[in-house]
Amino acid sequence: MRNTSSTANTSSADNDNQITLPDARGHFGPYGGRFVAETLMGPLEELTKAYEKYLKDPEFNAELEYELKHYVGRPSPLYHARRWSEKLGGAQIYLKREDLNHTGAHKVNNTVGQALLAQRMGKTRIIAETGAGQHGVASATVAARLGLECIVYMGSEDIKRQSTNVFRMKLLGATVVAVEAGSKTLKDALNEAMRDWVTNVDNTFYIIGTVAGPHPYPAMVRDFQAVIGREAREQCLEMTGKLPDALVACVGGGSNAIGLFYPFINDKSVRLYGVEAGGEGLETGHHAAPLNAGSPGVLHGNRTYLMEDEDGQIIETHSVSAGLDYPGVGPEHAWLKDSGRATYVAINDDEAMAAFHNLTRTEGIMPALESSHALAYVDKLAPDMSRDEIIVINLSGRGDKDIQTVAALKGITL
Amino acid sequence: MGRIKDCFENLKAGNKKALIPFITAGDPSPDITLPLLNTLVENGADIIELGVPFSDPMADGPVIQRSTERALKHKIGLHNVLDMVREFRKTDQKTPLILMGYLNPVEIMGYDSFAKEANEAGVDGVLLVDMPPEESDALQAELKKYGIDQVFLLSPTTSDKRLDVVCAKASGFLYYVSLKGVTGSNQLNISDVSEKIGHIRQKTELPIGVGFGIKDAESAKSVSAFSDAVIVGSSLVSLIADLTDKKDEMLIEAGKFIAGLRTALNVT
């Protein structure tokens, strides 16, 4: 691996204190950084300054906390899935119910934070990219709440897959722009949002929905999502008297996973599992699992693991869940993989689909197809653990948005 | 020192401005790139920017995006582009050639192999849009071994503090992005650009080229009044796209377009 900057801190001592990353220039070891065109360097510095200032500002944090409590509905419950645990006959399984948040997923934790920041920076126009539509809905929601103009970029392929969320965004007053370039999915929506930002930097705040992008986004989005892990840690201690033995979360860009993992990173007894989209199987090449089957490269402003060909071109990904259909992954996950702190596995489309049905029937909770990947891995993990061990899964979103996909796969027309 | 420096010194001695056209390698097909390069030089291009196709051209507008997509249909990657440069150098040892593109193709080749192969092929400079000076130390060390210049962008949002950082790391020339936006945008404000270039000149001795938003002889001429080089991309690429199926005509029209710009720049 290449040390690309004089300030990139790749010493092994960081393995013991990962919580201090990134460094001042946004590097997580060799990953992360700020790889953007010159026009965005100034605005990113301005954003970094604002973010660092308000992160420590008691008034900002009080407002954020108020919004998270009264608008988002936090804290989200930690739910003991007894029937499912019983069925698997191993570890006790707890679900961190991010699906119960306002708008139905963890995405809103971050959009509330960034929108409040946008407001303080005097920006009147919000742009966002979206894959499954959850981040787009969450952005449109807070934009409506704060009276900001909102433009959401979405690949035309995703628009077809997630028509309900598109309509939802429009109801909220957002403009949804269909992106026809490239593979017409999340990565192309991100490209287009970047192009908008570079053109309208003066009045526009770009709310990136995941822990990717140029510094400070990976750190900033993580910090806004870390509320998930902070609550889960406290709730688990309160309910069981101890820390969980394992955390499991799905990883597309990786914001719900890092949000859960981050407050546990220095708890060495807690194993961390990130679950990528194995699509039709890693061996088929039709998947979205860069940490399992990709290689390091630079895309969308940061160095990380990517799905790329031998020429360095980004290749098309496949997953049954639009929210995981992304060829990159947050740089902090790349670092957690290399340092060995977290383990990244892949779950195929059909396994995720089975887990979707299983949780729906066993616990009466309909999970998002993204989160179903995490659930499917627990089906494999829990039986080998003892009954007094604990797994916490991030149930990052609810499955209502996916019922059309599920119906179509079963050959049912709604 | 290399071709870029010689080129600017010769132009300066003749009180002339550099004309730098951009084309995407392999657009619309690989066989046309070499004849196009030669046509551009014959009609008055001083330096050429050759675009390396990348699947995710974040800083480019629709015109250059589509040119990249056309080239990628032929699977044109960095290796192929270097082959084209090698061919070009067989008959032209004088015209400086700059590779322009995004970092990832270079990243996957490896900085050391890239610098070595680019030098062997006859590349004089590299401009990687998504690699600001802050991230470029390792690559720059490799490029320096072979005397390859790294050209950096400056923009209307570049602060004075960053201006120092960029000027300290840049070589060859500086590329001033004349407006906020992607390539092919069209809200060029000449007096703003002029003022900014004047400011940049206080910080550096390097030649300054201006690009983004230069469409025709008129805008080229007005920008040349205060810059050392005029960079033209989208209008040329758009002309090429319109004549995709008529290659002879494409070469003639591209030649005429460049000749027109050359004439406008030469009028004093």
What's the helix and strand layout?
The complex is a heterodimer of chains A (414) and B (268).
Chain A: E1 27-28, E2 31-35, H1 38-55, H2 58-72, E3 78-80, H3 82-88, E4 92-97, H4 107-120, E5 125-130, H5 134-146, E6 149-155, H6 156-161, H7 163-171, E7 175-179, H8 186-199, E8 204-207, H9 217-225, H10 227-240, E9 246-250, H11 255-261, E10 271-279, H12 290-293, E11 295-299, E12 301-306, H13 331-339, E13 342-348, H14 349-363, H15 369-381, E14 390-395, H16 403-409
Parallel strand pairs in A: 4-14, 5-6, 5-8, 6-7, 9-10, 9-14, 10-13
Antiparallel strand pairs in A: 1-2, 2-12, 3-4, 11-12
Chain B: H1 3-13, E1 18-24, H2 30-42, E2 48-51, H3 62-73, H4 78-91, E3 97-101, H5 103-109, H6 111-121, E4 125-128, H7 137-145, E5 149-150, E6 152-154, H8 160-169, E7 174-177, H9 190-201, E8 208-211, H10 217-224, E9 229-232, H11 234-242, H12 247-266
Parallel strand pairs in B: 1-2, 1-9, 2-3, 3-4, 4-5, 6-7, 7-8, 8-9
